[in-house]
């Protein structure tokens, strides 16, 4: 008998191992209906009256809700149905369910959409609220409220409760918006119909009268709900597909994010704490998804701030991108903005909550921007590692986005012909369209703001047409399972079987609130372990048309104990538990909480304050209406909007630093003089016909006064125009300037200007970067090395000697340059960066610049570089560098193996350069442009690609004949990461990416200095770019950053502590000093100049300012460390900062070295020598 038992055990183990062998790495197992008993299928049967022409939302599916309807400790499931009745499945345990729809009294014939499980009548049993759409008959559109009778039967009572709304609704969210102790309801409305012109810019309806206006129902406390939409400020139109509730701004009151389909703005309703809401979307969020689908609001980075994820329809693969994404023209985009619509782009958006009411959209950086025709995002910890992962549903019953189909359908949109015949033909063509049955997506949260696609590894990539989804621990085993409502396919039931070797732990929490809100909806939870903190806000309506498990789930990773669990209940009461076991379910009751614990807001002093107004600075940069895309339609971005620069110096000899800020074409730049009290007065203006770029104060003619050089840029006209002539203005010593003719003829649209006496002849020479050849991008623009030949005559004169330098043609589209002695040999070298340029290094060999290529270790560093600045950041005695690049939050990617390229030539012989760009998508090189875009640039492509499909199926190599590319001018980029360039000595460098927080947008402004007076060099960053083409969208995620230096590393100071907010299209960034403290000037394209002041220090405002002949200082600290500080005439991006060192108690000694190598100690302890 024992032998037989042993045989059965071994045989069973063998079967278990072999049966799991194929799926041993899959986290989820798709269970068959024969196992689960869940056989629901949301079947659509199209006919003459039910089709996409009669009802636009016929393919938008239905949701799923989960909850324990009979209080037996097992989670039950309801699937909503469109043309079929929804179904309720009772959980019997062991992942087995029973369909109790009919016995429960839940059969119905209405077009169900979203569904919520919530205890509406507060009797301790979950009720079911179903949203309804579809029918033209008003009575058949009434929403349904099934009240749980407590005996596994339900009674429909929506009319009685005042919730039988008939407005074609998509979903509901129950929460206590007015904090009166009971649950109110927000109703998401979407009556999308063709006659509403849903994708056409038109005056927005903002008075609450629109048929597409959502509704807010207040719980009156007497068993009735009343529509209070208008008085509560719910006034904005939209075609809602998602509603997420959360305390988004952290004030203790629930807010709402509404994602709207089509052109309508998404809405961010911020609770005003008086029963009303105000939309703050345009103030807090820079751009949104265009066709906003479902959304979820959750904390993805465990910082306590809720982030917002909204889905759209951007495919991951090239073929579908080219097949369903129509081109968005720049003019149409501008018209949309002018009509009051916010910037919107066709992609998923992840809004990272930065606090202070500011968000950064990081979908591309996070790796979740493109999941095709998506519906439901669910952020939850599916692998129990302590971080919220992402599950996305996907698919559409008919691939209506097919551009060939759309253009074919337009042939029926003529006034000629029988209407009924044309409709039948349209219906026939739709019936022939294939289903866009697509894999759903799963992403693992990597803990650094990015996600890893794990759909196949987790076993959830079965192709389907999926809509609503919900998560719940169906088998009470400590991990989250998934339920998915599919159209024309059986529903998915995914059991989370985990990966045994992970051995991650969990904690489940059952909240038991007070009467009126027994589920504790709106509670905030914080779970702390030895090495992590997690936050959760308890709201159930999530994703798309669905409602998740009311039992709160936390993954704990490898933690063996929970240090604390904290709950802030909706009424403000507080509860805390310590030393809790893992792998358990806690039951927390609001009645045990301490009443009315009020968290006092601590007023916190920031490092910086916005002092613009108090200092009397008023300057706003105004771009003209030049649109580069008129000249070259497929440019990746414009070059007419790259300025302005900022320059700092004492220009009037009063010992106070002043500044210049450039203007746009048609606008004068301006000088500001500093007053003795640290405020400013406006000085003279300059010629307005130029587009000002970089600017520099320096002594051009040896008279001791700071003259002004301004680079002319932009693309107002074609090359070789006077409009691109740089300007030198000579200073009379009192801050009055007069233009000089000392410069040679310059006909290049330029960028930067930086000065140094590179040949050691006693005067300052200039490097001037050439930015772009107007109308001929990406052809090289000439850069200049202007040697100062003023001599003893005092007559300013400069000549271009660049042709004498071998390798100067490496400088093609320069954005920034820096004179720096990288090898400490006493001769200043030149490092330059630019667009499609490598990091170019010229070594100074006794006054001769020699190009360094192979020796520096900087091969294949081509990128879209912007600014460069230097500092001895690791305090090893040589200068390291920080370089701004495009960043990693873009659809464009580039690596050494898979570069982004442009093949430029006049392909169709129409007299203009065609910059054909390509980059890699899923390992294959493809054209970056849509078919419409490339035809707009090269009309000959129309005959080559007669259909969108033929274009979509062709990679780059097959798009052109070999001979067409032979004589093309080719540029490549291998690296888009803003980077730290470490000087490792011996003329070699190591290039490393900066932290991901600095990769959210292009970095431009880089300012290096000791801002907090601890003796270490800190760094300020600004960035963004609004000069992009419309399909890519603005780069606007960066808010500015303050990185506090520690000698060998940096600490990123969050916005609420730094106070440095630069959330605009920033350009020049410069430091200037005054007796009142240190100022930071932050310029922006097409916007106001900002001046930030550092808060006064106990150390006062003592500083050492160096003359132009001082090359660098050696700063020795009291802790025994020292660092080298170079003094630049021009650095960062288009800017010039003060040449000073702030003195503080941590500095022991300062020794300066001039350009001839002479040294002098100028500061010891408190004594200035």
TrEMBL record:
SMART domains: Int_alpha. The keyword Signal applies. Residues 520-586 form the ASPIC/UnbV domain. The keyword Mitochondrion does not apply. It comes from the Bacteria. SUPFAM superfamilies: Integrin alpha N-terminal domain. PROSITE patterns: PROKAR_LIPOPROTEIN. Pfam families: FG-GAP_3, UnbV_ASPIC. Keywords: Glycoprotein, Repeat, Signal. This is Similar to ASPIC and UnbV protein containing FG-GAP repeats.
């Amino acid at each position: 008998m024992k032998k037989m038992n042993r045989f059965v055990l071994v045989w069973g183990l063998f079967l278990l191992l072999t049966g799991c062998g194929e799926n041993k790495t899959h986290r989820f197992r798709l269970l068959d209906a024969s196992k689960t008993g869940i056989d629901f299928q949301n079947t659509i049967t199209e006919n003459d009256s039910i089709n996409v022409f009669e009802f636009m939302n016929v393919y938008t599916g239905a949701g799923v809700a989960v909850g324990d309807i009979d209080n037996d400790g097992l989670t039950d499931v309801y699937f909503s149905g469109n043309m079929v009745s929804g179904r309720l499945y009772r959980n019997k345990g062991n992942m087995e369910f029973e369909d109790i729809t009919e016995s429960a009294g839940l059969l119905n014939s209405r077009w169900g959409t979203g569904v919520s499980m919530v205890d509406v009548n507060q009797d301790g049993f979950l009720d079911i609220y179903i949203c309804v759409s579809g029918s033209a008959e008003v009575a058949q559109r009434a929403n349904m409220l099934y009240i749980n009778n407590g005996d596994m039967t339900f009674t429909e009572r929506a009319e009685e409760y005042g919730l039988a709304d008939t407005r074609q609704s998509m979903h509901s969210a129950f929460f206590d918006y007015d904090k009166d102790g009971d649950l109110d309801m927000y109703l998401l409305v979407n009556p999308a119909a063709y006659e509403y012109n849903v994708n056409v810019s038109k005056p927005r309806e903002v008075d609450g009268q629109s048929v597409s206006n959502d509704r807010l129902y207040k719980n009156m406390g007497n068993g009735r709900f009343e529509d209070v939409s208008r008085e509560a400020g719910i006034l904005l139109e939209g075609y809602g597909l998602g509603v997420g509730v959360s305390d988004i701004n952290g004030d203790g009151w629930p807010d709402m994010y509404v994602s709207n389909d089509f052109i309508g703005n998404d809405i961010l309703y911020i609770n005003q704490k008086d029963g009303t809401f105000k939309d703050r979307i345009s103030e807090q969020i820079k751009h949104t998804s265009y066709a906003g689908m479902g959304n979820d609001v959750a904390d993805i980075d465990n910082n306590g701030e809720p982030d917002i994820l909204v889905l759209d329809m951007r495919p991951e693969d090239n073929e579908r991108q080219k097949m369903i994404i129509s081109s968005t023209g720049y003019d149409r985009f501008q018209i949309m903005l002018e009509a009051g619509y916010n910037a919107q782009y066709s992609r998923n958006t992840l809004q990272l909550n930065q606090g202070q009411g500011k968000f950064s959209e990081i979908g591309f950086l996070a790796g979740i921007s493109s999941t095709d025709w998506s519906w439901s995002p669910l952020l939850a910890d599916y692998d129990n590692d302590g971080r919220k992962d992402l599950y996305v549903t996907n698919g559409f019953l008919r691939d209506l986005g097919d551009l060939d189909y759309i253009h074919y359908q337009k042939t029926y949109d003529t006034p000629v012909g029988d209407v009924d015949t044309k409709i039948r033909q349209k219906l026939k063509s739709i019936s022939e369209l294939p289903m866009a049955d697509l894999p759903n997506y799963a992403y693992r949260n990597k803990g650094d703001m990015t996600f890893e696609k794990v759909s196949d590894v987790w076993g959830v990539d079965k192709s389907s047409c999926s809509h609503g989804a919900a998560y719940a621990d169906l088998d009470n085993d400590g991990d989250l399972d998934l339920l998915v409502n599919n159209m024309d396919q059986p529903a998915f039931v995914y059991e989370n079987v985990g990966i045994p070797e992970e051995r991650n732990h969990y904690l489940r929490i059952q909240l038991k609130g007070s009467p009126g809100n027994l589920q504790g909806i709106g509670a905030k939870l914080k779970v702390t372990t030895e090495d992590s903190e997690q936050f959760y806000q308890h709201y159930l309506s999530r994703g798309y048309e669905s409602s998740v498990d009311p039992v709160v789930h936390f993954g704990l990773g490898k933690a063996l104990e929970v240090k604390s669990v904290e709950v802030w209940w909706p009424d403000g009461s507080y509860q805390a538990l310590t030393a809790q076991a893992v792998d358990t379910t806690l039951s927390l009751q609001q009645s045990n909480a301490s009443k009315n614990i009020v968290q006092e807001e601590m007023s916190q002093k920031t490092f910086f304050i916005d002092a613009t107004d108090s200092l009397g600075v008023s300057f706003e940069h105004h771009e003209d209406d030049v649109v580069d895309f008129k000249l070259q339609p497929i440019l990746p971005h414009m070059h007419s909007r790259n300025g302005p620069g900022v320059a700092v110096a004492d220009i009037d000899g009063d010992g106070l630093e002043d500044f210049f800020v450039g203007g746009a074409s048609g606008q004068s730049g301006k000088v500001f003089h500093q007053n003795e009290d640290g405020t400013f007065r406006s000085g003279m203006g300059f010629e307005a016909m130029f587009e000002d770029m970089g600017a520099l104060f320096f002594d051009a003619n040896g008279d001791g006064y700071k003259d002004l050089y301004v680079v002319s840029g932009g693309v107002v006209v074609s090359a070789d125009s006077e409009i691109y002539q740089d300007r030198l203005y000579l200073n009379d010593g009192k801050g009055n300037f007069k233009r000089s003719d000392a410069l040679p003829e310059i006909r290049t649209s330029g960028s930067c200007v930086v000065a140094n006496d590179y040949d050691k002849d006693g005067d300052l020479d200039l490097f001037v970067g050439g930015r772009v050849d107007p109308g001929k991008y990406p052809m090289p623009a000439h850069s200049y090395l202007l040697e100062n030949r003023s001599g003893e005559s005092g007559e300013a004169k400069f000549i271009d000697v660049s042709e004498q330098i071998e390798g100067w043609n490496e400088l093609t589209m320069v954005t920034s340059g820096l004179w720096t002695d990288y090898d400490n040999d006493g001769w200043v070298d030149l490092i330059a960066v630019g667009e499609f340029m490598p990091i170019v290094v010229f070594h100074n060999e006794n006054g001769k610049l020699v190009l360094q290529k192979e020796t520096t270790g900087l091969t294949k560093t081509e990128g879209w570089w912007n600014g460069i600045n230097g500092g001895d950041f690791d305090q090893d005695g040589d200068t390291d560098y920080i370089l701004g690049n495009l960043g990693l939050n873009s659809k464009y990617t580039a690596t050494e193996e898979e570069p982004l390229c442009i093949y430029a030539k006049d392909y169709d012989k129409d007299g203009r350069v065609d910059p054909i760009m390509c980059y890699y998508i899923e390992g294959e090189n493809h054209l970056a442009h849509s078919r419409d875009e490339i035809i707009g640039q090269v009309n000959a492509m129309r005959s080559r690609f007669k259909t969108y499909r033929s274009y979509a199926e062709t990679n780059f190599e097959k798009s052109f004949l070999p001979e067409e590319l032979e004589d093309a001018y080719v540029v490549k980029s291998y690296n888009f990461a803003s980077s730290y360039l470490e000087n490792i000595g011996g003329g070699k460098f190591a290039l490393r990416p900066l932290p991901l927080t600095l990769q959210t947008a292009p970095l431009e402004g880089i300012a290096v200095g000791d801002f907090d007076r601890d003796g270490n060099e800190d760094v300020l960053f600004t960035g963004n770019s609004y000069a992009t083409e419309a399909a890519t969208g603005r780069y606007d995620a960066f808010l500015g950053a303050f990185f506090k230096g520690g000698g060998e590393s940096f600490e990123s100071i969050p916005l609420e502590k730094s106070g440095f907010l630069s959330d605009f299209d920033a350009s020049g960034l410069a430091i200037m000093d005054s007796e009142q403290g240190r100022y930071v000037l932050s310029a922006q394209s097409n916007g106001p100049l900002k001046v930030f002041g550092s808060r006064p220090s106990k150390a006062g405002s003592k500083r050492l300012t160096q003359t132009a002949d001082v090359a660098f200082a050696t700063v020795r600290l009291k802790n025994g460390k020292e660092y080298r500080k170079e003094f630049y005439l021009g650095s960062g991006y288009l800017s010039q900062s003060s040449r000073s060192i702030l003195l503080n108690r941590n500095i022991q000694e300062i020794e300066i070295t001039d350009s001839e190598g002479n040294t002098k100690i100028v500061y010891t302890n408190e004594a200035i020598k």
